[in-house]
Amino acid sequence: MGVQVPKEALDFFKKLEKNNNRDWFNERKKAFKAVEAEVKQVYNTIFDTLNTHDEVDKVKMFRIYRDVRFSKNKDPYKTHFGGSFHRTKPKLRGGYYLHIQPNNESFIATGFWEPAPADLLRIRKEFEMDDSEIREILANKKFNSVWGDTFVGDEVKTAPKGFSKDHKAIDLIKKKQYIFTKKYTDKEVLDANFISEVNESFKTIRPYFDYMSDVLTTDLNGVSLI
Asked: Where are the transmembrane segments (predicted)?
């Protein structure tokens, strides 16, 4: 049998949701570590598969421990696995993320979660100058059959400072994040073809990544910055 998400991973988190405390977790830490090791294989396999068609230089699987210092939610543990895949900078921009959580809350995400201020301004300036290329990518049938035809994420209420709220591309300019997500059911996550499906979905994001990488490595005149 090939590498796949074990049912025990979802089962463990379902129980943890009801028993999110250190005593319960510590009694079952060995079982968790065994599940975590299997899931790590899933992330590593996706990393290897991504590198057959992209340049990804690292995979980071996040720890289960929550930082509760500044949170109203004081539960000590996350009830999901999360991990990111980092494209090789500076020439390649954007990133991939896989989130595994029971009760049909799993998803993949791609794009720009927290663009650096300079990158965010550069993206907005590009859309202000010419939004035709990004509109074409968003309208592509193969692309939006996977990712939809619009960005998700936070945005400002009207217009960022220095931009007109009446600009024809204000729907794009006012975004603070430029990301796409795709959700999965528990049944889909546990399917033997899940890794392949995730990879194929990630593959369809490339026109967007190629475009944004070009934008973020050039100035408004198209002169290379790297």
From this structure: none
Sheet with strand 95-100: strands edge to edge? 56-61, 81-87, 95-100, 106-112, 178-184
pLDDT per residue as tens digits for the range 147-188: 999 999 999 999 999 999 999 999 999 999 999 999 999 999
Identify any residues that bridge with 87 across adjacent strands, giving them in sequence order. Answer: 56
- Detail the DSSP E strand segments found in 88-223: 95-100, 106-112, 178-184
How many Cα neighbours within 13 Å face the side chain of 162? 6
Three-state SS string over 86-141 comes to EECCCCCCCEEEEEECCCCCEEEEEEECCCCHHHHHHHHHHHHHCCHHHHHHHHCH
- CB atoms inside a 10 Å sphere around CB 106: 24
- For residue 71, CA distances in Å to 58, 66, 74, 83 come to 29, 9, 7, 21
Q: Tens digit of pLDDT for each residue in 77-129?
A: 999 999 999 999 999 999 999 999 999 999 999 999 999 999 999 999 999 99
Q: Are 2 and 192 in contact (CB under 8 A)?
A: yes
Give 140-156 pLDDT, tens digit per residue.
Answer: 999 999 999 999 999 99
